[in-house]
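Look at one such:
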Amino acid sequence: MTILPFKPAFQLARIEENKRWLIEELWADQAVGLIGGEPKLGKSFLALNIAVSIASGALCLRRFKPAQTGRVLLFAAEDALHIVRQRLEGICLASNIQLHNLDIQVITVPTLHLDVAADRNRLKDTVKHLRPKLLLLDPFIRLHTCDENSSSDVAPILGYLRELQRHYQLAVVLVHHARKAANNVRAGQALRGTSELHAWGDSNLYLRRYGNDLTLTVEHRAAAPIPDIPVAIQGHNNQLSLMVIESKPASTKAKKASTFDRVVNVLKKTNTPLPFSELRKACHIRTERLSETLRELRKNGTIIKTRQGYQLQADGVSRFPFPKTLTSPGKGKAEITPTQS
């Protein structure tokens, strides 16, 4: 009989606090994960900011401190090599450092397909030879010829990258596109392709645009998330760099608060439940946006759903805290009995 190795839980290794992060609050030590977002939002700028931070010890986005430094191995599949250099120089200029002092190694082959055994072996041999602290691959769509929507096609590629991470103790950053006009769903759910991609990440970063405001969302598997961060691509001496800006974009809260208030105000004016179709017409809200708003209002106890439609709680009191910008509903007049949706 052959059994698997095991040990009591209390004998499992603890992670030292000073080795918890690669970049504090932004990317966990030896984490695999994604930088996601719609096209042209600055995902590559964000990835290169991380590369420069790890290679130099400079603050990432002028805010996040690298906990560890080391060599970076980069493959930029969509950008010409002179563009990669130009972007790196711009980021270095903004941080007052010199690119020639940084240990950033760039893979220069025109294509690299991780669903092809020969390319996987070449990348593994390169990682083994260089022993980078960080492997950065940009973007995922150019790294394979398979169906992104197929879990059975994508999972082996992600498994291969996880194997590299575990065997060579490095972090892996994979840049990936999100679907267009998907701001009404959670950031991870907006990613193109199979849900395997979102589930794979230990640390994930998402860039999202609301009006003219660009926001960075951070999530971790083993650490608490931090509040969304306003960022912008800014010029400095004819070079571009992504950085945190001082004030949080108002449009995200304003858009959501406006939607909440419109629903609550319409329901305040009626004594009977409103079906979804009537509520949509009265509020002038798109179907997806209204569905999301109703889910959140039901979750925090502001409204309930009856067989006839949606209505404010009879007692007008939320079971959970309202969003700060959400107008608290008045007391309902009719007694209603909640039912399962």
Notes: Residues 249-341 form a domain with the Arc Repressor Mutant, subunit A fold (CATH 1.10.10.10). The chain has a mean pLDDT of 86.
